[in-house]
UniProtKB/TrEMBL annotation:
InterPro entries: MetI-like, MetI-like_sf. The chain crosses the membrane at residues 12-34, 73-96, 108-133, 153-174, 211-232, 259-279. Keywords: Cell membrane, Membrane, Transmembrane, Transmembrane helix, Transport. SUPFAM superfamilies: MetI-like. The lineage of its organism: Bacteria, Pseudomonadati, Pseudomonadota, Alphaproteobacteria, Hyphomicrobiales. Residues 74-275 form the ABC transmembrane type-1 domain. This is Spermidine/putrescine transport system permease protein. Belongs to the binding-protein-dependent transport system permease family. CysTW subfamily. It is a multi-pass membrane protein. It is found in: Cell membrane. Pfam families: BPD_transp_1 (PF00528). It comes from Labrys monachus.
Length: 288
């Protein structure tokens, strides 16, 4: 705060603090509080809202835990989101390292610019493109001369989510690796360390904040995605956000939908805590 005051003065500092407080309190905290309040209230006719029957209850959460189908969809969403996160990390780490340490700065800027090109197209169009490619009568089967159902089970969702969110893994990892002094890598190599050992003992420990930030963002975006699962689903694949959407718009039960959404929020919060503990970094470290 002192540095902010010295650099921008009291007027701009007050404005920055006010804008940050507005963002956190009005756009993040307040909607979540309202959602939690809704989740503990029963669905009642409009005439009975606020009456003696409008009391706090855990019935909406009990609806989730007694429904094996919803619990299964929840667990599958967690599992598939973890798979998407692992795939994005496995694909993004080599690219991030190559871009940060193996090419010149101008070439790195060009590569990053090319990687960002797909982000100029809306997520909806990119998901439609993958549906056209992976459909039974789609481009891939036409090119290969095969009749494979690429969108069976969760295959289409995994491909679509990994493609859509891989840059959210790549950029934090690239930023973390780029800040590593190259002389440390050269020193490890000069001392006889293999490439694998150099990465494991030098590069990965330094890149842990970026890896943790990427894992958190990809998992949360994947678990909370609704567009990609809607477009690339198969008859036997269901996503937890689709269940929430059904509660809100099909059943018109905002209270049960809020309870399910709060469970998803708790899941994401636990995943953030798990990643921070696993990589032994602080939350502020992931924002560097």
């Amino acid at each position: 705060m002192d540095r902010l005051l010295r650099r921008y003065g009291p007027g701009l500092t007050t404005l920055f603090v006010a804008m940050t407080a507005f963002w956190l309190l009005v756009l993040v905290v307040l909607p979540d509080i309202i959602m939690v309040d809704y989740s503990f209230r029963p669905l009642l006719p409009v005439a009975e809202a606020g009456g003696p029957k409008d009391v706090y209850t855990i019935a909406n959460y009990a609806t989730f835990f007694v429904s094996w189908l919803h619990v299964r969809v929840f667990l599958v969403t967690v599992l598939v989101s973890c798979v998407v996160t692992a795939l994005c990390l496995a694909a993004a780490y080599p690219v991030a390292y190559f871009t940060a340490k193996s090419v010149s700065d101008s070439a790195a800027a060009t590569l990053l610019g090319l990687l960002l090109v797909p982000m100029l197209v809306s997520e909806l169009l990119r998901a439609f493109a993958w549906k056209i490619i992976l459909d039974y009568k789609g481009v891939l089967n036409s090119l290969l001369g095969t009749e494979i159902r690429w969108l069976a089970s969760y295959n289409g969702i995994i491909v679509g989510l990994a493609y859509t969110y891989i840059l959210f893994m790549l950029l934090p990892v690239y930023n973390a690796i780029q800040s590593l002094d190259t002389s440390q890598i050269e020193a490890a190599r000069d001392l006889g360390a293999s490439r694998w050992r150099t990465h494991w003992r030098v590069v990965v420990p330094h890149a842990k904040p970026g890896i943790a930030a990427g894992c958190v963002m990809v998992f949360m975006l994947s678990a909370g995605s609704i567009l990609v699962p809607n477009l690339l689903e198969s008859p036997n694949s269901h996503w937890f956000t689709q269940v929430i959407q059904q509660w809100f718009f099909d059943s018109q039960d905002w209270h049960a939908g809020s309870a399910y959404a709060f469970l998803l929020l708790v899941l994401c919060t636990l995943f953030v805590a798990l990643m921070l503990a696993l990589f032994r970094v602080r939350l502020s470290g992931t924002a560097r």
